[in-house]
Amino acid sequence: MVDKIKVSLLGSTGMVGQKMVKLLSKHPYLELVKVSASPSKIGKKYKDSVKWIEPGDIPENVKDLPIVSTNYEDHKDVDIVLSALPNELAESIELELVKNGKIVVSNASPFRMDPDVPLINPEVNWEHLELLKVQQKKKGWKGLLVKNPNCTAAIMSMPIKPLLDIAEKSKILITTLQAVSGAGYNGISFMAIEGNIIPYIKGEEDKIAKELTKLNGKFEGQQIIPARLDTSVTSIRVPTRVGHMGVINIITNEKVNIEEIKQRFRNFKSLPQIKNLSTAPKSPIIVRDEEDRPQPMLDVSAENGMAITVGRIRHENNVLRLIVLGDNLVRGAAGITILTVEVMKELGYI
Amino acid sequence: MVDKIKVSLLGSTGMVGQKMVKLLSKHPYLELVKVSASPSKIGKKYKDSVKWIEPGDIPENVKDLPIVSTNYEDHKDVDIVLSALPNELAESIELELVKNGKIVVSNASPFRMDPDVPLINPEVNWEHLELLKVQQKKKGWKGLLVKNPNCTAAIMSMPIKPLLDIAEKSKILITTLQAVSGAGYNGISFMAIEGNIIPYIKGEEDKIAKELTKLNGKFEGQQIIPARLDTSVTSIRVPTRVGHMGVINIITNEKVNIEEIKQRFRNFKSLPQIKNLSTAPKSPIIVRDEEDRPQPMLDVSAENGMAITVGRIRHENNVLRLIVLGDNLVRGAAGITILTVEVMKELGYI
Amino acid sequence: MVDKIKVSLLGSTGMVGQKMVKLLSKHPYLELVKVSASPSKIGKKYKDSVKWIEPGDIPENVKDLPIVSTNYEDHKDVDIVLSALPNELAESIELELVKNGKIVVSNASPFRMDPDVPLINPEVNWEHLELLKVQQKKKGWKGLLVKNPNCTAAIMSMPIKPLLDIAEKSKILITTLQAVSGAGYNGISFMAIEGNIIPYIKGEEDKIAKELTKLNGKFEGQQIIPARLDTSVTSIRVPTRVGHMGVINIITNEKVNIEEIKQRFRNFKSLPQIKNLSTAPKSPIIVRDEEDRPQPMLDVSAENGMAITVGRIRHENNVLRLIVLGDNLVRGAAGITILTVEVMKELGYI
Amino acid sequence: MVDKIKVSLLGSTGMVGQKMVKLLSKHPYLELVKVSASPSKIGKKYKDSVKWIEPGDIPENVKDLPIVSTNYEDHKDVDIVLSALPNELAESIELELVKNGKIVVSNASPFRMDPDVPLINPEVNWEHLELLKVQQKKKGWKGLLVKNPNCTAAIMSMPIKPLLDIAEKSKILITTLQAVSGAGYNGISFMAIEGNIIPYIKGEEDKIAKELTKLNGKFEGQQIIPARLDTSVTSIRVPTRVGHMGVINIITNEKVNIEEIKQRFRNFKSLPQIKNLSTAPKSPIIVRDEEDRPQPMLDVSAENGMAITVGRIRHENNVLRLIVLGDNLVRGAAGITILTVEVMKELGYI
Predict the structure, then answer these.
(1) Semialdehyde dehydrogenase NAD-binding domain location, by residue (chains A, B, C, D) (predicted)?
(2) Could you say which residues of chain D have pLDDT below 50?
(3) Pairing state between β C319-326 and C244-251
(4) Which candidate, B232, B81, B75, B231, places its Cα nearest to that of B164?
(5) Inter-chain touch B53–C298, beta carbons under 8 Å
(6) What's the pLDDT score for residue B3?
């Protein structure tokens, strides 16, 4: 790969930002050249403005980069802007960059449910990127805005995709057990969650249910037709570090062959696999036959955190049940964004 | 209370056994006079054969008691035998005692689903004790055998009782998040569960579903008619110490008034409350209106661990949802046994 | 006790504040009548301005109290003001109250090392309260200011007191393993400390070493002569909730009789024990002979958190070693303050 | 490397055994060809007799290996036997193999303090391998026995080596904070250690103090002359997963220049670095200048777990203090054994 694609990163010092810095430092053709962070850090070196919490040292090529602002001027010479901004700051910052012509691929929540903005989980709905043509026409933006889903929706949408024929005819009940990192590095205090369970995550349940319909929807020329998924989600915070688990119950009185379901998962491949993209997992969905898997401690890093793991697949009593686990920081955030960029390059958007 | 009831305790050195020792030490009329434990400990003082893990010291009246065997001879002069035996040892030991005329109230699993053995969670089904008359006739035992349910079934059966009219017409899906103490003090290693989730507990899911039908069943003269509960349970081990949580989903297309449901819970009283029994919680079901409750760290000790706490009661999308929490060692084990004895005394069985 | 003493509490909604609210709610003669908190909460009811984290509900007599300011006007009709203010806010607020004539007993750090301010750990140095006479003369304050020590210094000063003759001739090395609650409820995030150790606590090591010399010093008419303690402290944060542990090494080539040392600890009584004060532990220093004690999970609540526990007392190789544990929220903060007030009442300062 | 060295592994299914399996699977010239485990597993495939707890799957070349016994017959065609046996089983098994002519490199404790058996931490005392000549003469064994130290001694001996001139003239006090994995995967239950501290590890303190004198001793032709280290150790179990920390206090009234001490550590290289051995860390001792390091979560994996990290180096009050951290499973066990084999090959013992 001769020509590298120049990348800038918004929100580079947060936990997801650091994960992106790390993943980009080993990337074959994405080159991180600009890092931005909160105004008080502008001008400082990256290494002096970050509390680095990834194992190992800050990548060499990044540690001395100066922090820049989020203004267009500071990003005009990069090919693409990645965003790990906090949700509450993202809307206006990203909009300014897109209006000025930047391609922004973002993890933050604003615009995710905007009908003209593709919400991409590459293996699930890479073809929704075609919506970008509609976006340019309708929004009148000079640049492009692509969103990645909520971390839990990213993970849960994966096993639903190959089951969509069943799922669309069923009632779906999901209980999610979400790791503390999902709330940010300083999001929850030790005293609040150690040895405890908090059965509530603000705004999460609705986001997951809605984003699942868009992610599993169909692009039909001008718009995404959402999947008809009737999903009730209960989201619970548990004292684990990384890895969101979902207990998925699909109530169906259809006949279900468990072995055939496992085959659907094991055979699931999509564009990232077919094109052998750099960050793509070989098996996006790993099926575990052991009765006590998946477990965060053993399975969260499967395929460098880019695969999800499914286990305890059962059908009894008219309920198809499975347990899903994925890395909320990689599959659910930093990795999905980078894989999205790889798909965009493959398809000629970059 | 002039005359104390003499009690012996099987399995007195385990975690539930210790909890019983502690609860009995403050009891107004139950007096612990015999403690039994595994054969290697017989003859030693209680304090020298237990690794005491309850906060505070071993109760004065117990610490010098000699460990006795589980044989009938060693228990013939007590009024009642409580059992916190491991499931795999309980069957033959308890049977020998009952055949020899003892009243045994037991936490262990054998005989729980025997149609002639009452499975008692006092507030839920104290009236099932009447089955003891049938038991004596049919089994030909000189004594009496009363069982307490699985710890999770004990907790989950409480909120289902006041909802039984709805529940019997619905599909019920329960995800349980169970504390490590449920597996015994040495049941799960730190390395296996710290910061981890194990989405499987051997035998638990079936036990819970079945016991719920018996607990919420009706005694009709000669037998218990099980409740028609169509329950699918997924049991998950989480890294908390004490407190089993249940995410209960009741799929119903009936109209449901949330305030009325809360009233049912708040108004729920039963014989233990009416007779003001020593160990009875004033409010067996506590309803929390805060959006992030119940939490083990804050709610598990409500009413000294004898009340369960219910929160996040919602009805959306044809699913009545609630989150339940109870103390698996007290409400689910040691406390329920003692309260059962109190009911038996109240009703004249002792 | 006919006449209750009216108490107000600064910093009432924090973790130590809540612990004081709880302890005061059961107190025989201290009556909490005013609660203050940060300006944004003024006027709200206590129950609406606190995120209550003590097990059980907010005490009845406090939950509807309106939050008042920290100004003198809001406290002029109470007999004594207790302070659980954050260190960085305490200085000016407490000073204003004292200058206006209030008696303030405070947990916060400012003024602790002021030569005219008694730093009180009741069993260790209650007689330092006599310094208040000097304080009034020298400072010209209309009220009185009494300080309680840093939570770790409070705990470590206890076992040093009966060993002072040896300690003053020795080099002392202490490694402290401090619970997360010591940093406040939201002080350390789960991601930072779960399964981790942070071998640094800002400012702590110096505070402990210095406060130990004052606490174990002698009042000589006009001033406290500090104890000649040559102490090096290394303070480490560990993932426990409550309970600061100290590994104390006293390097001495004197002959030491371990049994005699244990007797010194077991016999240690002081004014609070002699006068049988309400909050005083019967045995301020509990000696454990088991080889694996003290442990936070088993020993932190000894005597309702007011006793410290000492174990592994050894003398080998010219090092007298012991391991100490105390409840940082009770013995180290809320309880010590209340016991100080009880001593002041006993001695006629209130 | 044309010819691979054939290796067999005793205790292959334990936690350290699994770590060795993993490290060997990527090794350039050590080839694991035999795996042994407890008698009940003999004949089964490795994958069917192990509860695999390393992230990722069992290495391809090992998963179908049949479990063999520990008898000489089952190991006679390998070049070297590695042992991760439990201490209580190791003595007779290893002795039989050595007497029959095998080269055994072992992690287990028996023979560690035998004057004729080299106790090797490669960077610290690789030259002690010369003792093997004495061993063969004196013991009359046909094979060779080499021991690796206790995991904590392995880690603590590293920073003491470059400070030996100071350390031998000083009193040394070490408090170790040891991770739960040090007790084996099932060694400590969650209920016993979660949120808790156990200030006692059976046998550990003596082992560490003694092994330090041998590791830092000098080989003088016929024997190891132990270093004159006067060390008192207090060993404490803390709720971390991997990584033993040591708070080292060296009481010295010599002048100490902190920068010079840091240089000693940073410059520390030994045979493994000079010969660039496969498993050798580039920097065996990493010095961290941040005030809050080392931390297990951030530093334990430095150089794949083969480097130790030193921080908070201070000299005040005649105490030279430092905090040390190392990976107890890699530097302290599996990795040190493999590096020892590499040194033995380099020196021609294999």
Answers:
(1) 6-132
(2) 1
(3) antiparallel
(4) B231
(5) yes
(6) 83
A244 among known catalytic residues: yes
E-strand ranges in chain D read: 5-10, 30-36, 67-68, 80-83, 103-106, 144-147, 171-178, 218-219, 224-225, 230-237, 244-251, 285-287, 308-316, 319-326
Active site residues of D: 151, 244
- Pick from B177, B196, B321: which is nearest to A197 by CB? B177
Distance CA C254, CA B179 (A): 50
Active site residue C315: no
Question: For residue C178, which phi and psi values (nearest 5 degrees)?
Answer: -110, 140
- Please name the amino acid found at residue D164: L
> Does D53 sit within 8 Å of B195, measured CB to CB?
no
* ipTM of this complex prediction, to 2 decimal places: 0.96
Question: DSSP secondary-structure letter at A333?
Answer: I
Residue B1 has pLDDT above 50, yes or no: no
What dihedral angle (degrees, nearest 10) is formed by the CA atoms of B124, B128, B130, B136? Answer: -140
- Mean pLDDT for C90-114 is 97
Chain D residue set in contact with B, beta carbons under 8 Å: 15, 53, 180-181, 185-195, 239, 241
- Above 50 in pLDDT, residue C1? no
- Residue A29: count other Cβ atoms within 10 Å of its Cβ: 14
Which tens digit of pLDDT belongs to each residue from B17-59?
A: 999 999 999 999 999 999 999 999 999 999 999 999 998 899 9
CA–CA gap between residue A350 and residue A4 (Å, rounded)? 12
What are B's interface residues with D at a Cβ cutoff of 8 A?
A: 15, 53, 180-181, 185-195, 239, 241
Question: Contacts from C216-223 at CB under 8 Å and sequence distance 24+?
Answer: C216/C124, C216/C125, C216/C157, C216/C160, C216/C161, C216/C164, C216/C167, C217/C125, C217/C128, C219/C125, C219/C127, C219/C128, C219/C130, C219/C131, C222/C134, C223/C115, C223/C131, C223/C134
pLDDT, position C2: 55
Contacts of D194 in chain B (CB under 8 A): 180, 190, 194, 239, 241
What residues of chain D lie within 8 A of the CB of B240, using their CB? none
Task: For an interface test with B, give the residue of C298, C304, C330 to mutate (most B CBs within 10 A).
Answer: C298
Per the CB < 8 A criterion, the answer to whether C294 and C168 are in contact is: no
Contact residues on chain A for C193, CB-CB shorter than 8 A: 190
Q: How far apart are CA C264 and CA C160, in angstroms?
A: 11
Neighbours of chain A (3+ CB pairs under 8 A): B, C, D
Instruction: State residue A56's pLDDT score.
Output: 84
For residue range A45-76, what is the model confidence (pLDDT) as tens digits?
A: 999 999 999 988 999 999 999 999 999 999 99
Of A189, A195, A239, Cβ closest to residue C189: A189
Of B171, B291, B317, which has the smallest distance from its Cβ to A232's Cβ? B317
Using the beta-carbon criterion (under 8 Å), do A177 and B319 form an inter-chain contact?
Answer: no
Classify residue A194 by its DSSP letter.
T
CATH superfamily of D151-326: Dihydrodipicolinate Reductase; domain 2 (3.30.360.10)
User: Residues of C at the D interface (Cβ-Cβ below 8 Å)?
Assistant: 171, 173, 175, 177, 195-200, 230, 232, 234, 236, 238-241, 243, 245, 247, 249, 251, 291-298, 311-312, 316-319, 321, 323
> Helix B151-160 to helix B204-215 angle, to the nearest 10 degrees?
40
Phi and psi torsions of B59, nearest 5° = -55, 140
* Minimal CA separation from B199 to chain A, in Å: 6
The full set of domain ranges for chain A reads 5-150+333-347, 151-326
A157 CB neighbour count, 10 Å cutoff: 27
Three-state secondary structure call for residue A296: helix
CATH of C5-150+333-347, one of 3.40.50.720, 3.40.50.1240, 3.40.50.2300, 3.10.20.740: 3.40.50.720
Q: What is the DSSP letter of D278?
A: T
Residue B42 CB neighbours (<10 A): 16
